[in-house]
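Standup notes
- DV: blocked on the single-chain target, sequence here:
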Amino acid sequence: MMTLSTRKPHLSQILWQRVSRDNAILAVTLLLVLSFMSVFILMPLWAMFVKSLQSKQGEFVGLANFAEYFSSSALFGSVTNTFTLGVMITVGVTLLAFGYAYALSRSCMPMKGVFRILGSAPILAPSLLPAISLIFLFGNQGLFKSWLGEQSIYGMLGISLGLIFWTFPHALMIMSTSLRTSDARLYEAARSLKTPGWKVFFTVTLPAAKYGLISTLIIVFTLVVCDFGVAKVIGGSFNVLATDIFKQVVGQQNFSMGAVTSLLLLLPAALAFTVDRWVQRKQKSLFDTRSIAYQPKPNPVRDTLCFSYCLIICSAIVLVLGMAIYGSLVTFWPWNTALTFSHYQFSRVSTYGWAPYFNSLTLAFFTAFFGTVVIFVNAYAIERGRAFPGLRQVMQMLSIVPMAVPGMVLGLGYIFYFNDGNNPLNTLYGTMFLLVANTIVHYYTVGHITALTALKQIPQELEATAASIKLPQYRLLCKVTLPVCLPAILDIACYLFINALTTTSAVVFLYSTETMPASVSVLNMDDAGQTGSAAAMAVMILFSATLAKLIHLIIEHGLIVKTQAWRKR
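- DV (later): unblocked, structure below
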């Protein structure tokens, strides 16, 4: 006689029956990225916070380190210097970038394409390059030293000029986007009412660009207060928070005070990030399907002024970049100006030779490849997932956190967390894997926002249609979503590659003798007085980043022709 088995089905079988394959893949994806972000950003930040409350011997001392920091006039002076630089440079760069973007979008001047390329060129160079170039131009043996009179380039002046050069393209990109989306109907209405040009500027142009202006102010301020490279090379005795962290950790081995300084540096960045998020929520689209794109009409006086303005700025950019290249070719500045490639023989001045350069290429390649995969897959899971709304919301919040964390702070947190002998992940310290993970996390948010923007352009009905015909979501991703989002994916990969080449602050604490990147090698050679070789390595980074951008444009053009034909009607 047959009897029915009374054994209950296993719990995993019940869960598998209730959860679809797509939802299982979604859950695994979100949990994997959550684990990655927890280990490589949350835990290091927590370790840094704990370290700030400990003495040099590791004993809990509460807020004693903070009291000691603020009682030191020298250390507290760095806070004042940092905020002074931040405000001054932010206002200056925003005004310069607004004028430049206005000339590109509101005039009919010639050579717009050339000016647009040259205006964005500094983003391809490490922040160390303008500092080195300024030394060749205005240093003690500089070409134009007499222009400064009794004033020295080493200090606040040099830091300001270097950071203006480095942050200008970041501000330009935001301002260009803001001014490009203007409705021509508003200008037609103003013209029909015979409104004066200056009044049109203040009542139409500025209000339309106000959110872009605010975002520019916030982004530039964050970049200025968090930068390390320019201040380290040309700052002299002018101390800022970023260099204080380096001195406390590397110079004095005072990790507790370094953690305190890092938390102070984290505050303005977090505040700026919070304000920027508030601004983004307030921003509303001023350009809809009924809008007409503004097209400027020729005006000889305005076009001549705009051309002259852009020409002056581009001349300064070309001068800084050209001087760095020239300085890397001069035999012995300034006494022997014969041209030579001897400074590119890095083995003569460093035991590492060309190894740091190839380390940077390796770092950039792995960061671009794995970072793009992680960022896009996570963005897709958050934006297009059909289940686990709570977990997706947590991941969305966590994906925005890296934007508020300066590179120096993140790097120092990695020391406290991964260089701890009690941490089983201690073996990762100094490896290329940790450098790649650190760089991905450092630049994660921009790539994440880019991916979300591309995914939001795809109709939600695609997922609903795929679900109705029981098409697995991963097949929809491969067949439809990836080809449609290909331009954004390529932009993310290029962004990660270039920033991995040029970054200094995020990796300056994490390298070993086998994994030293080129940007850190520039820093070390400049410290050793080998300015020519430092310039040569910085130029190699610039050329490599430029080549990467050209390859990106070529690949993008070829693939878009094949995959984006649907955009043309």
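- Follow-up: The chain has 23 helices and two strands.
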